[in-house]
Amino acid sequence: MVDVPGYLARIGYSGPTTPAAQTLRAIHRAHLLTVPFENLDIELGRKIVVSEDATVRKVVELRRGGFCYELNGAFAALLRALGFRVTLLSARVAGDGGRESPEFDHLTLRVDLEEPWLADVGFGDSFLEPVRMESGREQQDPAGKFRLVKLGERMQLEKGQSDGSWKPQYSFSLQPRELSDFTARCQYHQTSPDSHFVQNRICTRATPDGRITLSGMKLIVTQNGQRVERVLASEDQRMKVLSEQFGIRF
Asked: Which of 30, 33, 97, 174 could form a disulfide with 13, with the two C-beta atoms 3.0–4.6 Å apart?
């Protein structure tokens, strides 16, 4: 069972909880503003378990973040507890030269209301509010402009660029998945030396006017389109930033 009041308190949400588009948008935004995308357990040698109980406990009780399997796994559990109809989807992340990562590389969510929505609180720098699953429709979000494009039996999420072009983020099929389907890929991402999550430690969350990111020892703050970077001088400074900016304490 999901501790709904505890989860909503964790993300600082006290608004309506009736399954509706307005509720979904508000809870989605609140989640991204409070729960960071992070992979810090990998460096610490702590096994990441893909289960509903483990993901919800990590976010709510331990007040941590996680990567896609954890964040979207926990968010799906919250939405279902509130009465939303949620489907887990497997996505392939866009790479250089039109290449894509393997299936199950990313977990995203379909939420069905009067119309279907794409919800995702586990992709890092992406939309703040869910987008309608309607091919070709440009949708303005606080984090930028997004659209979904139908590619055969798959759909591709794209983000608008300053030069007018569109950059692919990931593609996904509409085949329903179970959380356990992502176990093998989650294991790869936390153990393989080829995984970018093993190679780099990251902690990032959205802010009302930008994003704050700690990548290794580099602190990056983006505010109203202005980006400021500085390298932290010590591990003590890094731990202080994790505590003060992300609420993470080990």
From this structure: 30
Q: What angle do CA 84, 56, 10 make, to 5 degrees?
A: 85
Which tokens go with 171?
């593609």
Residue 101 CB-density burial (10 A; 0-12 exposed, 13-18 middle, 19+ buried)? middle
Residue with tokens 């969510």: 109
Q: Which of 28, 31, 105, 106 is catalytic?
A: 106
* Closest listed residue to residue 121, CA positions, set 6, 7, 16: 7
CATH 3.40.30.10 assigned to 4-246 = no
Is the Cα dihedral 132, 29, 66, 227 positive or negative?
A: positive
Give catalytic status of residue 120 as yes or no: yes
Q: Please check whether residue 217 is in contact with residue 206, taking contact to mean a CB–CB distance below 8 angstroms.
A: no
Coil vs helix vs strand at 184: helix
Catalytic residue among 28, 68, 105, 189: 68
pLDDT tens digits, one per residue of 106-146: 999 999 999 999 999 999 889 999 999 999 999 999 999 99
Sorted by sequence, the CB contacts under 8 Å of residue 226 that are 6+ apart come out as: none
What residue segments make up the domains of the chain, in order of their start?
4-246
